[in-house]
Amino acid sequence: MKAYINNIAHPIIQGETILDFVRRIEDRNAIPTMCQDDRLENFGSCRVCSVEVARQKDGITKTMASCHTPVANGQYIYHNTDKMKRLRKNIVELILTDYPSDKIFAPDDKIPTEFQKTIAQIGIPNIRYPKGDNHLDIESDRAHPYIKSDLSQCINCYRCVRACEEIQGEMILNMSGRGFATNIIKGFDTTFDESACVSCGACVQTCPTEALTDTYETKTLIADKTVRTTCTYCGVGCQLDVSVIDGKIRGIQAPETAEVNEGHTCLKGRFAFQFYDHPDRLREPMIKKNGKFEIVTWNETYDFIATKLIQIKNKYGVDAIGGISSSRATNEENYLMQKMIRVALGTNNIDGCARVCHAPTAFGMQQAFGTGAATNSVEDLKDTDAIFLFGANPVKGHPVTGAKIKQAFMKGVTSIVVDPVKTKLADLATHFLQVRPGTNVAILNMIAHYIVTENLVNQDFIDTYTDKYNDFKDHVIDLDMDELSELTGVDKDVVKAAAIAYAKADRAMEFHGLGVTEHFQGSKTVMLLSNLAMMTGNVGRKGVGLNPLRGQNNVQGAADMGVQPHQGAGYLDVNDPKIQQYYAEKYGIAKMPEKEGLKIPDMLDAAIEGKIKALYIMGEDTIMTDPNSYHSIKAFENLELIVVQELFMTATSEMADVVLPASSYFEKNGTFTNGERRVQRVNKVIEPIGNTKPDGQIIIDMMHKLGYDQPTGLTYDAANIIEEIADVIPFMKGLTWEGLGTNGLQWPIKEDGTDTKMLHIDGAFKKGKGTFHHFDFEESPEIVEHGANYPFILTTGRELEHYNSGTMTRRTDNQSILSKDYLEVNPRDAKIKGITDEDIVRIFSDRGSVNIPVKISKNVKKGILRTTFHQPEVFINIITGSVGDKETMTPEYKVVAVDFEKV
Ligand SMILES: Nc1nc2c(c(=O)[nH]1)N[C@H]1C(S)=C(S)[C@@H](COP(=O)(O)OP(=O)(O)OC[C@H]3O[C@@H](n4cnc5c(=O)[nH]c(N)nc54)[C@H](O)[C@@H]3O)O[C@H]1N2
Ligand SMILES: Nc1nc2c(c(=O)[nH]1)N[C@H]1C(S)=C(S)[C@@H](COP(=O)(O)OP(=O)(O)OC[C@H]3O[C@@H](n4cnc5c(=O)[nH]c(N)nc54)[C@H](O)[C@@H]3O)O[C@H]1N2
Ligand SMILES: [Mo]
């Protein structure tokens, strides 16, 4: 028996439970538990963690559940008395009466479940009670591709029900029935696949038995090794523990120690890994000969490309070559790619997917604040009073952050959503402004107008830290609210209430997405969002700021590394002769290219004009994901050389002259930078598949063939490249492979390795003073030019299950969960057009037409249509247009003038 005298021998920590306290003083297994999970609110239902507590040594003791009793000064805790041991045995024995007898011990070839460990810790009891039959005969559910349930092993601990609610913010799982007959149900007592389950797997991960498992049985696998790495999908940057047996990936779990995802992840990160050794993976380099791809050696491929590039360079000049880099690849690879284009070839024609994504965020925030990245961290959600979500749907696009935002909404934080679509978060929000697509500038001017007229500005902050406020104020005061209300389709009182709610919050956080950037007035919208934060003093503190939900796993990183035609690694201006000299010295060459490069849309136009002759594309499905596909195809057809470095044969690789098979993120080392500027390690899990090579190796080999030898050597090693990056990029001085540890570092990273959670602290803007800009709403040329003939506005976005071109997710069981792109149509429009659910319609614009199945939905207003762009069967970008953001050319995927008809 052991007692702890809290306030004398061991000071207690505020907020600790008795369980936390004993675990801290002794060890994690000091008290057996069953219904407890660190990530969940303590529940105290199973009583397995009971301890005896007295107010004085050897005084009268009371039995308490240690997991939900706060520790207090003066308590004496007896946690392993005979009485407690008997109690725990009794509880477990009772549970075992209704539990399969062959599941009490783990077989030799499996890791014991948590419950099996608890049974072992408590000591195998004799089961004295009669066998129950409440759970044993519940049919198992195997309909879902990833999650299966065998409720004969359910011990009614409620962990799955709580995880579903508290971690994911869904309420799919519930308990039904009473007493012994209580059991878990899904949705309205159906199967996982029929319920509204989002397949995140949080329930599986927490379940202490095998009542809920994934189909890979990851929890109980005895793996050869488990490697921690960073997810390849969105910009949240979840950490994953990948289990490997015999060189094959067998399952993924979310590490609870990960700062970013705290033991959670979505179905893509956890389950959608089967693409990696799919039979369709490109395994050999190929050159197209007489219209057909033929397998060739790496060396032959390199020689072919180098010869062609040099020919083109000699004949047309180096600016006839362009490069498109990949936000799916690592920082080191993106750094090398821009270096190859700039240094080994000699042009600034290098761009990446930020062009079609968040380029306006980088540009707009640089204008306003001086830095184009998120000002705060996602963890600030715990410290904010208001969340302003503008044109983003994180429940689908950034599911782990989305779940955190959903929790905050449900707990009653002030919540404002601006979106033309009634998303899940819009449905939960206190204020939902359902704008007409493309009218962001108008609605933000309205919000600013009301903040000014209601006297809710933070004049102190404005006077001390910002410039040009008065011009902005005069501009918005004069605007006609009735006119703007008409334009946006949102009642002015609804806007006013939202404006007041935002401005009155002590700490308000803005989050924005592509609903902002993929527009004709994208950059302007970003500057107006910056204005809102500045005019209310919501910059430079915890729980505030402007937080773009950056898209790809490494889109932040690709731009940091210089994958932009106007800025090199570290955002230095390539037009500035001093900067050119800086880079030339760092790269050990005589001269850097002097002319700013072309953006992707410019490159495609230049190809059509015959000015660009070669494109080197690393990991982007340009044909499928850029707008106006026929235009892109026309551009590609005009090229003399197309090189595509890919995992799969995509619409883009099909058009290539040379295909280079790249290794996926499981097969290489490197780093990804998430949307909070957090550089995290990607650790190699398995050997490269087939004859593939990491992009970094391919680029180093190519540079060598082009006559530039990478100073770190001809063998690609991420750690060496990181050293070079730290030397070139001023705000990454302290970056090292070792220093990144398990949770990464947020830039700026000082020389001593300290990182930065928040930018512009206390109004200290990077550019000196924050700058206000002001703009009028302007109707998109898409509507002005085509609106009369094509009266519907189509907006395109994403679904949870698929990722962009779907190249990877379509090659996993996600495809069986969601196999189609649908067109969402308001019921009234459906009635007029005479269509019902699942009907196929032809949707057409000025650019072309495609066929697509319909889903009737009240989430879109009359006159508005919504769809996604994941399935090549539909190929929606055939109909999207070439209008883009005025400043950055980011395409306006969110406003497409269309019409449709039943086929
Ligand atoms: N599951 C999944 N996750 C992804 C991706 C994926 O393909 N699938 N892609 C990743 C990438 S590359 C990115 S960039 C991110 C994108 O993530 P998000 O930025 O969330 O992307 P979207 O869903 O395209 O658009 C966001 C929202 O903008 C709204 N919107 C459209 N037009 C307007 C408008 O005029 N005004 C306003 N206020 N809102 C508007 C849409 O209705 C939508 O709800 O997601 C990343 N994560
Ligand atoms: N209609 C419409 N179109 C859109 C959008 C929209 O909202 N609506 N959103 C746009 C946005 S925001 C974006 S970011 C783009 C995304 O467009 P893309 O960047 O083209 O799309 P992804 O599918 O993410 O990835 C491209 C390719 O990278 C490959 N890949 C993955 N990992 C690696 C790797 O390690 N190395 C190499 N070499 N290749 C790899 C994949 O196989 C995939 O084919 O789409 C844009 N297109
Ligand atoms: Mo994106």
UniProtKB/TrEMBL annotation:
Pfam families: Fer2_4, Fer4_Nqo3, Molybdop_Fe4S4, Molybdopterin, Molydop_binding. InterPro entries: 2Fe-2S_ferredoxin-like_sf (IPR036010), 4Fe4S_Fe-S-bd (IPR017896), 4Fe4S_Fe_S_CS (IPR017900), Asp_de-COase-like_dom_sf (IPR009010), Formate_Dh-H_N (IPR041924), Formate_DH_asu (IPR006478), MoPterin_dinucl-bd_dom (IPR006657), Mopterin_OxRdtase (IPR006656). Residues 145-164, 188-217 form the 4Fe-4S ferredoxin-type domain. SMART domains: Molybdop_Fe4S4 (SM00926). The keyword Oxidoreductase applies. Keywords: 4Fe-4S, Iron, Iron-sulfur, Metal-binding, Oxidoreductase. The keyword 4Fe-4S applies. Residues 224-280 form the 4Fe-4S Mo/W bis-MGD-type domain. This is Formate dehydrogenase subunit alpha. The lineage of its organism: Bacteria, Pseudomonadati, Bacteroidota, Flavobacteriia, Flavobacteriales. The gene is fdhF.
